[in-house]
Every structure is written in structure tokens, then in C-alpha cells.
Design a protein that fits this description.
Structural class: mainly alpha
Number of helices: 2
Radius of gyration: 15 Å
Low-confidence stretches: none
Largest sheet: none
Order of helices and strands: HH
């Protein structure tokens, strides 16, 4: 399985400006782990959830 050079899903990710090529490194890393596509998706989803939660905790602690 390979990632196409052009994104098929037309979405904008301004926070990733200049870092778009990292998706190929991430994809290669996931492939090295011998994960199925479903396992990779679940791992990314789990990681996203943990990042969102850690961010929420940090935001809740910000002093006004």
C-alpha cells in the first residue's frame, strides 16, 4: 500500500504548513510495525484522543 502524492481528501490544515511531507514518514513508520490498516487507524485514533485530552487538561489549567 502506498500513499498518493496528492491528497484525495481536499481539506486544509494550516497548522501543518511546511510539514505535510511528515505524513509519508508516519505512514512508513506504521508500515514498519506490521500493522493492518484497521490497527493503524485505531492506533492513530487512540493517539489523537490522548493528545486531545492532554491538551484539554492543559487548557483547563491556564490562568486568566
Amino acid at each position: 500500500m502506498k500513499l498518493p502524492k496528492e491528497l484525495k481528501i481536499k481539506a486544509s490544515y494550516p497548522a501543518l504548513a511546511g510539514k505535510e511531507e511528515l505524513r509519508f514518514e508516519l505512514f512508513d513508520w506504521l508500515k514498519e510495525k506490521n500493522l493492518t490498516a484497521q490497527q493503524a487507524i485505531n492506533l492513530l485514533d487512540m493517539t489523537k484522543g490522548e493528545i486531545v485530552e492532554a491538551r484539554r487538561v492543559e487548557i483547563d489549567e491556564i490562568m486568566l
